[in-house]
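R.M. (postdoc): so does anyone remember the format we settled on? I'll just put the C-alpha cells first.
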C-alpha cells in the first residue's frame, strides 16, 4: 500500500492511509488477529459473513427489480459533518427571541 505525502502534509497522508486500510479490511483483520480464534469459531464467523453478504446482495437485487421499496435516504444537513442530532438548518443552540407582547396602557 502506498500513500503520497504532498507539501509535507503528513496529517492528510495519514487520513488517506487510514481510509485505504479501512477499505481493504486491514484494520479489521489486525483486530481479529490480536487473539487466537479457534477453527470452529473461524468457520462460524466466515459462514455468518457469507450469509450477510448474500442477504445484502439479494436485497439490492430486489430493490433494483422493484420488488421491495428502497430505504428512505438519511437527511443531509447543510452544516456539514459532526453536528450531531438536531443540528440541521434552521436550528441553533440558543432559543429564538420571543416577540414582545403589546402592553396595554
Amino acid at each position: 500500500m502506498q500513500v503520497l505525502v504532498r507539501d509535507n502534509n503528513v496529517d492528510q497522508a495519514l487520513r488517506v492511509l487510514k481510509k485505504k486500510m479501512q477499505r481493504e479490511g486491514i484494520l479489521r483483520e489486525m483486530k481479529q488477529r490480536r487473539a487466537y480464534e479457534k477453527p470452529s469459531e473461524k468457520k462460524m464467523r466466515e459462514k455468518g459473513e457469507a450469509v450477510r453478504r448474500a442477504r445484502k446482495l439479494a436485497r439490492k437485487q430486489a430493490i433494483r427489480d422493484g420488488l421491495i421499496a428502497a430505504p428512505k435516504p438519511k437527511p443531509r444537513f447543510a452544516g456539514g459533518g459532526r453536528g450531531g442530532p438536531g443540528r440541521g438548518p434552521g436550528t441553533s443552540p440558543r432559543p429564538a427571541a420571543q416577540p414582545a407582547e403589546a402592553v396595554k396602557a
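R.M.: ...and that's the designed sequence above, right after the C-alpha cells. Also worth knowing: The first helix runs from residue 10 to 24. The CA atoms of residues 23 and 45 lie 20 Å apart.
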